[in-house]
């Protein structure tokens, strides 16, 4: 897309202030040197094992999410605004979840349609009346933000279930510091390395209330074949907690226990990185072998804390998304600091009509989809693709939302022919326990294909180191 | 620590050690195959005992009719259907390491991961006879690198102990097997009829455990078959002897007992095996039969592995 706002060059003319020192450095680099550094970075990632296996295909080897060595830079002032806006959302989303699993005031007040919540597949009725410690449902959040102009930031999505990518934020920084120490001498880049400590503090702060000892924490992973397995083991290692699979954990004598070399040991807080569906075969999917039979009952009884709570997906459902400005106002009494992308909800007749008439201009998403699958990017789709999608949309309009195609900002990125602008987004990670904690940074995802707006790694996206500058 | 973690670490260590043993056995087999020989003198027999020492004879013979250099080397290095091939060992060690990344230090992981990545790039067909020695050296150096990284970076706690136990149970098994396959050339009466072939065999045994130089330093005399058996069974200074292995297994089991505040059956078994290795002597072994002793040792060594697994809940 031509004419997009560029993080380094703005709309042309002067280099934007946060990039000044960097641009000077970049200006004197030779393309071959940059390419050599890029290939060194890839070797580092492979050696460290920041790779993911592809399900059911061990022989295909492991894949790597491409890493671009040119950082994305955010000024201190920009970050301040983002972080205040993120904290507001984190608190509001959790207040919303507490409400809909209790008195449902927001529905009674008519601010959000009842069936949108109650009939939503992300709503977990078993959670009604449950009392999670501190009333928190989503403790670890990834807020996807896009930028379209100097002062225009939009929240694209609030990931409130099991957001991933934070290990890339940390390893991208490690890699950059290893390869370009001189850049860090010239730029005051805020450190992100506190994240594991913040995560641990957050998890400890939501331990079951009547626990009279230091809580024991464990991280539950689906196992080495999961695409985020590196992140699971990375975080467990950084926090110094056990990385467990479903087979390592049992419910015994009314407690959650892991099977250690010394026999069963109690777990108090479980940071789970598997979906609700697989968590407990007695309550959710009965065929799940990844989960722990009986854990949900323990959770309801307050014997163990599950992070994020079951049912936390309701707050990042795409059908709920268009109501988030309402939700923020309802629970905080203030206007949202960060705006939503204008969204057409195809369950509303007017919106639906508009979407059908403007498919070629819109991005249409499945309400429950993720990872960039099942979506239509109108401006780049062929006529046949649009018509095929129209048929799908007509068969189940309530299953779709649509948004205008945003002119996502670009950032200089190393491409085959040289440094060229590519579109990107930003996922800062927020933690909520005894307080809201953020590290200054996030995961920047970049669409490596020229003109592409899809940044998902499953669709050819890569990542960049994200620098938040200090004042 | 999770029981599953202990299990993975124990096997990771065994696989790393096994890869090294394989490289050493192939090297010895290859050396002997290079010796000048008479027309009808079959060195294929040598490959047969290499396979037996590697514990791979049965699998090999199910696949091939007779042992020959090319097939044996391929089977021991690259065959993924052979669970003890270097290829399988490096893959399994790396798989276990990946599953237990949190228990390993970065140096240990990088050593495992690099070995696996480098080895995966090798095309078996491209390995010529001239490159084989380099490849075998490389395999041994990778195992040494992992152990060095482990010894230099790991906490002296449960991870270390399970890795040590795995390593030295595997090593003891390997040494006992090498002795047993060739036990008949080690009997004292052989010395009387010792031929040049026997001399080659004795040298081969010592080379299989990298002890051909140290033997001379320790005994200051030519190969004597019963001395060789004594050296590999009872000498506490020889790092691949059964005694040396059990000194380290015992220390690690004691460490675990202290850490966990409890002793188990495996501790008694290990104590008993070690006591014999400390107090026994080679004459007694020959009197009751070297072969019988080794068969019994291999079985006990195996049993100890099972008892460790049981004591520390390897399977949950």
Describe it for me?
With 471 residues, chain A is an alpha+beta fold. Chain A contains 15 helices and 23 strands. Chain A has helices spanning 20-27, 31-48, 76-100, 105-108, 114-118, 166-179, 181-186, 195-205, 229-239, 276-279, 295-300, 318-321, 324-332, 349-357, 383-395; strands spanning 52-53, 62-63, 67-74, 140-149, 152-159, 217-220, 242-244, 249-252, 255-260, 263-266, 269-272, 305-307, 339-340, 344-345, 362-366, 376-377, 400-404, 410-415, 418-427, 429-432, 436-438, 443-447, 461-468. In chain A, strands 3-23-22-19-18 form a five-stranded mixed beta sheet. The longest helix of chain A has 25 residues, at 76-100. With 316 residues, chain B is mainly α. Chain B has one domain (3-311). Helix content of chain B is 73%, strand content 0%. In chain B, helix 1 packs antiparallel against helix 10, helix 2 runs antiparallel to helix 8 (158-181) and helix 13 packs antiparallel against helix 14 (265-279). At the A-B interface, helix 2, helix 9, strand 7 and strand 9 of A face helix 1, helix 5 and helix 6 of B.
Quick rundown:
Chain A is an alpha+beta fold and 471 residues long. Chain A has helices at residues 20-27, 31-48, 76-100, 105-108, 114-118, 166-179, 181-186, 195-205, 229-239, 276-279, 295-300, 318-321, 324-332, 349-357, 383-395; strands at residues 52-53, 62-63, 67-74, 140-149, 152-159, 217-220, 242-244, 249-252, 255-260, 263-266, 269-272, 305-307, 339-340, 344-345, 362-366, 376-377, 400-404, 410-415, 418-427, 429-432, 436-438, 443-447, 461-468.
Question: Secondary-structure blueprint of this entry?
Answer:
The complex is a heterodimer of chains A (about 475) and B (about 325).
Chain A: H1 20-27, H2 31-48, E1 52-53, E2 62-63, E3 67-74, H3 76-100, H4 105-108, H5 114-118, E4 140-149, E5 152-159, H6 166-179, H7 181-186, H8 195-205, E6 217-220, H9 229-239, E7 242-244, E8 249-252, E9 255-260, E10 263-266, E11 269-272, H10 276-279, H11 295-300, E12 305-307, H12 318-321, H13 324-332, E13 339-340, E14 344-345, H14 349-357, E15 362-366, E16 376-377, H15 383-395, E17 400-404, E18 410-415, E19 418-427, E20 429-432, E21 436-438, E22 443-447, E23 461-468
Parallel strand pairs in A: 3-23, 5-13, 6-7, 6-11, 11-12
Antiparallel strand pairs in A: 1-2, 4-5, 4-20, 8-9, 9-10, 14-17, 15-16, 15-17, 18-19, 19-22, 20-21, 22-23
Helix pairs in contact in A: 2-6, 3-13
Chain B: H1 3-34, H2 44-53, H3 57-63, H4 69-77, H5 86-99, H6 106-121, H7 132-153, H8 158-181, H9 190-193, H10 196-208, H11 212-219, H12 225-234, H13 242-260, H14 265-279, H15 282-288, H16 290-311
């Amino acid at each position: 897309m031509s004419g997009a706002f560029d993080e380094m060059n703005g709309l042309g003319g002067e280099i934007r202030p946060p990039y000044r020192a960097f641009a000077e450095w970049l200006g004197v680099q030779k393309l071959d040197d940059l390419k050599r550094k890029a290939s060194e970075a890839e070797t580092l990632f492979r050696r460290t094992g920041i790779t993911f296996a592809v399900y059911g295909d061990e022989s295909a080897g492991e894949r790597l999410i491409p890493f671009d060595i040119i950082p994305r830079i955010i000024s201190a002032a920009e970050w301040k605004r983002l972080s205040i806006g993120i904290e507001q959302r984190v608190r509001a989303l959790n207040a919303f979840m507490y409400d809909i699993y209790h008195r449902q005031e927001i529905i009674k007040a008519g601010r959000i349609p009842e069936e949108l919540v109650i009939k939503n597949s992300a709503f977990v009725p078993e959670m009604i009346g449950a009392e999670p410690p501190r009333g928190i449902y989503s403790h670890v959040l990834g807020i996807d933000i896009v930028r379209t102009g100097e002062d225009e930031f939009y929240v694209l999505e609030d990931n409130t279930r099991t957001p991933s990518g934070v290990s890339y934020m940390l390893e991208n920084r490690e890699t950059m510091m290893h390869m370009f120490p001189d850049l860090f001498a010239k730029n005051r880049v805020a450190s992100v390395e506190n994240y594991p400590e913040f995560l641990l503090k957050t998890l400890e702060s939501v331990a079951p209330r009547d626990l009279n000892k230091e809580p024991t924490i464990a991280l539950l992973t689906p196992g080495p074949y999961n695409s985020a397995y590196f992140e699971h083991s990375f975080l467990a290692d950084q926090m110094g907690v056990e990385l467990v699979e479903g087979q390592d954990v049992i419910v015994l004598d009314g407690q959650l226990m892991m099977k250690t070399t010394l026999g069963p040991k109690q777990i108090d807080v479980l940071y789970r990185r598997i979906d609700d569906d697989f968590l407990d075969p007695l309550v959710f999917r009965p065929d799940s072998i990844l989960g722990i039979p009986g854990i949900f009952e323990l959770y309801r009884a307050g014997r163990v804390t599950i992070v994020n709570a079951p049912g936390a997906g309701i707050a990042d459902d795409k059908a709920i998304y268009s109501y988030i400005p309402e939700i923020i106002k309802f629970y905080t009494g203030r206007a949202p600091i960060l705006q939503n992308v204008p969204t057409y909800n195809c369950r509303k007749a007017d919106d639906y009509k508009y979407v059908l008439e403007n498919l070629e201009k819109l991005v249409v998403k499945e309400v429950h989809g993720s990872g960039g699958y099942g979506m239509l990017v109108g401006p780049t789709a062929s006529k046949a693709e649009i018509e095929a999608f129209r048929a799908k949309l007509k068969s189940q309009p309530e299953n779709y939302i649509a948004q205008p195609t945003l002119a996502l900002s670009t950032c200089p990125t190393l491409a085959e022919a040289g440094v060229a602008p590519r579109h990107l987004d930003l996922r800062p990670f927020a933690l909520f326990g005894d307080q809201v904690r953020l590290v200054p940074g996030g995961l920047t995802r970049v669409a490596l294909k020229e003109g592409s707006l899809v940044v998902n790694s499953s669709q050819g996206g890569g990542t960049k180191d994200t620098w938040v500058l200090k004042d | 620590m999770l029981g599953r973690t202990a299990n993975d670490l124990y096997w990771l260590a065994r696989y790393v050690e096994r890869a090294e043993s394989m490289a050493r056995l192939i090297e010895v087999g290859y050396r002997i195959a290079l010796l000048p020989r008479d027309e009808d003198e079959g060195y294929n027999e040598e490959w047969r005992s290499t396979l037996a020492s590697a514990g791979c004879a049965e699998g090999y013979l199910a696949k091939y009719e007779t042992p020959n250099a090319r097939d044996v080397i391929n089977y021991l290095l690259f065959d993924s259907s052979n669970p003890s091939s270097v290829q399988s060992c490096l893959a399994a060690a790396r798989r276990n390491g990946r599953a237990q990344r949190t228990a390993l230090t970065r140096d240990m992981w990088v050593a495992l991961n690099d070995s696996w990545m480098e080895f995966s790039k090798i095309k078996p067909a491209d390995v010529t006879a001239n490159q084989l020695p380099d490849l075998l050296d490389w395999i041994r150096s990778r195992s040494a690198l992992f152990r060095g990284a482990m010894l230099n970076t790991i906490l002296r706690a449960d991870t270390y102990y399970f890795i040590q136990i795995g390593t030295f149970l595997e090593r003891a098994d390997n040494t006992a097997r090498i002795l047993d396959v060739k036990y008949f050339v080690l009997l004292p009466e052989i010395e009387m009829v010792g031929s040049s072939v026997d001399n080659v065999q004795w040298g081969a045994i010592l080379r299989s455990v990298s002890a051909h130089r140290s033997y001379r330093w320790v005994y200051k005399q030519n190969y004597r078959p019963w001395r060789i058996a004594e050296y590999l069974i009872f000498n506490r200074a020889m790092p691949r002897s059964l005694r040396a292995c059990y000194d380290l297994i015992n220390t690690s089991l004691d460490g675990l007992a202290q850490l966990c505040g409890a002793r188990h059956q495996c501790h008694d078994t290990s104590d008993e095996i070690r006591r014999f290795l400390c107090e026994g002597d080679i004459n007694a072994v020959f009197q009751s039969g070297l072969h019988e002793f080794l068969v019994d040792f291999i079985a006990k060594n195996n049993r100890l592995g099972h008892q460790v697994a049981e004591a520390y809940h390897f399977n949950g």
